[in-house]
Amino acid sequence: MEEIVVTATKRTESLEDVPISISVVSGETIEKYQIVDLQDLQSYVPNLNVQRTFGNWAVRIRGLGSGVTNLAF
To answer: In the chain, N or C: fewer CB atoms in 10 Å?
Structure first.
Protein backbone atom coordinates (compact mmCIF):
# COMPACT_ATOMS: atom_id res chain seq x y z
CA MET A 1 0.00 0.00 0.00
CA GLU A 2 1.17 3.51 -0.71
CA GLU A 3 1.82 6.00 2.05
CA ILE A 4 -1.26 7.93 3.19
CA VAL A 5 -0.59 11.65 3.71
CA VAL A 6 -2.75 13.72 6.08
CA THR A 7 -2.96 17.52 5.88
CA ALA A 8 -5.68 18.16 8.49
CA THR A 9 -3.40 20.36 10.61
CA LYS A 10 -2.26 22.42 7.60
CA ARG A 11 1.01 20.50 7.42
CA THR A 12 1.89 17.27 5.65
CA GLU A 13 2.21 14.24 7.93
CA SER A 14 2.22 10.49 7.45
CA LEU A 15 -0.91 8.74 8.71
CA GLU A 16 1.30 6.72 11.05
CA ASP A 17 2.31 9.96 12.83
CA VAL A 18 -1.18 11.45 13.21
CA PRO A 19 -3.01 10.70 16.49
CA ILE A 20 -6.36 9.80 14.95
CA SER A 21 -8.42 6.68 14.41
CA ILE A 22 -8.99 5.72 10.78
CA SER A 23 -11.43 3.16 9.39
CA VAL A 24 -11.29 2.00 5.80
CA VAL A 25 -13.95 0.08 3.90
CA SER A 26 -12.74 -1.10 0.50
CA GLY A 27 -14.74 -0.90 -2.69
CA GLU A 28 -14.75 -4.70 -2.77
CA THR A 29 -16.43 -4.82 0.66
CA ILE A 30 -18.98 -2.22 -0.42
CA GLU A 31 -19.89 -4.30 -3.46
CA LYS A 32 -19.79 -7.66 -1.65
CA TYR A 33 -22.13 -6.56 1.16
CA GLN A 34 -24.19 -4.22 -1.06
CA ILE A 35 -23.55 -1.12 1.05
CA VAL A 36 -25.62 1.67 -0.50
CA ASP A 37 -25.82 4.34 2.22
CA LEU A 38 -24.38 5.44 5.56
CA GLN A 39 -26.85 3.33 7.53
CA ASP A 40 -25.45 0.21 5.84
CA LEU A 41 -21.89 1.41 6.46
CA GLN A 42 -22.36 1.73 10.23
CA SER A 43 -22.19 -2.07 10.51
CA TYR A 44 -18.58 -1.97 9.27
CA VAL A 45 -17.17 1.20 10.86
CA PRO A 46 -16.67 1.13 14.65
CA ASN A 47 -18.49 3.87 16.59
CA LEU A 48 -20.36 5.17 13.52
CA ASN A 49 -23.98 5.96 14.32
CA VAL A 50 -26.42 7.06 11.62
CA GLN A 51 -30.03 8.02 12.38
CA ARG A 52 -32.81 9.20 10.13
CA THR A 53 -35.47 11.23 11.92
CA PHE A 54 -38.13 13.50 10.44
CA GLY A 55 -36.50 13.31 7.01
CA ASN A 56 -33.08 14.44 8.27
CA TRP A 57 -29.90 12.47 8.85
CA ALA A 58 -27.84 12.58 12.04
CA VAL A 59 -24.33 11.19 11.64
CA ARG A 60 -21.99 10.71 14.59
CA ILE A 61 -18.56 9.16 14.89
CA ARG A 62 -17.43 8.53 18.48
CA GLY A 63 -20.26 10.77 19.67
CA LEU A 64 -19.29 13.78 17.53
CA GLY A 65 -21.24 14.84 14.49
CA SER A 66 -24.33 16.50 13.15
CA GLY A 67 -27.60 16.96 14.95
CA VAL A 68 -30.98 16.06 13.50
CA THR A 69 -31.82 19.77 13.13
CA ASN A 70 -28.88 20.45 10.81
CA LEU A 71 -30.78 20.66 7.51
CA ALA A 72 -27.64 21.59 5.55
CA PHE A 73 -26.04 18.25 6.36
So the answer is: N
